Amino acid sequence: AKRRGLSQHEDYRPGLESATAERYRLAMALRDALGRGEIHIALQPQVELASGRLTGAEALARWTLPSGETVPPGIFIPLAEATGLIVTLGEQVLRQACRAVVQLVGAGLTNLRVAVNVSTLQFAREGLLQDFLRILREEGVTPRQIEIEITESLAMQDIGTVQQRLQAFRDQGFEIAIDDFGTGFSSLSYLRRLPIDRLKIDQAFVAEIGTVDDENAIAEMVIRIAQRMGMTVIAEGVETPTQAAWLQARGCQDGQGYHFARPLALEDLLQWQATRNPG
Ligand code: C2E
Ligand code: CA
Ligand code: CA
Ligand code: CA
């Protein structure tokens, strides 16, 4: 079944045989890595801009080969999506996110939420919610402690189905965020129909802050849209104090980015938290 998934998405293009073979090898390696539990997560802190308080973290998948080399998510996530392996990958990421929640709570960091990315193919699967609830139950975590990040392109597909599925997640207590918000500005009407808790400003728009382009800043528009619709906003890719201050001044609640911390191993996150809030 896994092989069929791969070949289904493969276009034959003369001259690209070796690239295709390479991709196939990597897909098999990913399947094996998932089988051996070698995909792990890094956690990137999310911080309340006004107070600096840690509000949560985003779980980001990481793949380290036995050689110590890493494969970038920009390579293996699209591959996982094209081959259907994203379903297994997503479950493993969620399970690790749950374990991180348990450890963070154990370390006295209550009221935190860990966000996981859910791709279109996962979301299209019937039974995703049941799978998620089972994993949470097994790990002793409640839906309130998990946030689901879906992309704008997913949100704009077959609105009726998306609305129903999201509502079912929401009813269980999961928070829903729209990731990379602003990158697909074709229609905003879907926002009104979907049960969404927060918008995540794409890092491309955060990068524009403080440049000549910022007069018509999309980041500012996103903050206004969120305010109008009763949603909160988090900015991703916050790299400078100027960006953090700009965002906060305009009403953006939370931030995530290198200015605060890179994606970290759980122990490093606990260390980071301990050293910035001594006592
Ligand atoms: P994303 O969801 O938009 O995640 C944010 C990306 O920005 C991450 O890249 C993160 O490391 C990076 N980043 C964080 N802070 C900064 C910053 O201040 N500046 C800059 N320039 N970059 C920053 P990463 O970890 O390489 O992940 C790439 C993408 O892969 C993610 O983009 C997400 O779409 C996808 N991905 C990662 N893990 C998963 C997963 O478990 N499931 C799914 N479906 N997708 C995942
Ligand atoms: Ca994300
Ligand atoms: Ca994002
Ligand atoms: Ca992004």
Which helices and strands appear, and what pairs or packs with what?
Blueprint: H1 2-8, H2 17-35, E1 39-48, E2 54-64, E3 70-71, H3 73-83, H4 86-106, E4 113-117, H5 120-124, H6 128-139, E5 146-151, H7 152-155, H8 159-172, E6 175-181, H9 189-193, E7 198-201, H10 203-207, H11 218-229, E8 232-235, H12 241-249, E9 254-255, H13 266-276
Parallel strand pairs: 2-4, 4-5, 5-6, 6-7, 7-8, 8-9
Antiparallel strand pairs: 1-2, 1-9, 2-3
Helix pairs in contact: 2-3, 4-6
Ligand C2E binds at residues 44, 60-61, 72-74, 77, 86, 90, 93, 117, 119, 179-180, 203, 236-239, 257-258, 263.
How would you sum up this structure, described in words?
There is one protein chain. A hairpin with a 5-residue loop joins β2 (54-64) and β3 (70-71). α2 crosses α3 (73-83). It contains 13 helices and 9 strands. An 8-stranded mixed β-barrel has the order 1-2-4-5-6-7-8-9, surrounded by 6 helices. It has 279 residues and is of the alpha/beta class. It binds ligand C2E and calcium ion (3 copies). The site of ligand C2E has 22 residues, from β2, α3, α4 and β6. Residues 23-277 form the EAL domain. This is Putative response regulator receiver modulated diguanylate cyclase/phosphodiesterase.
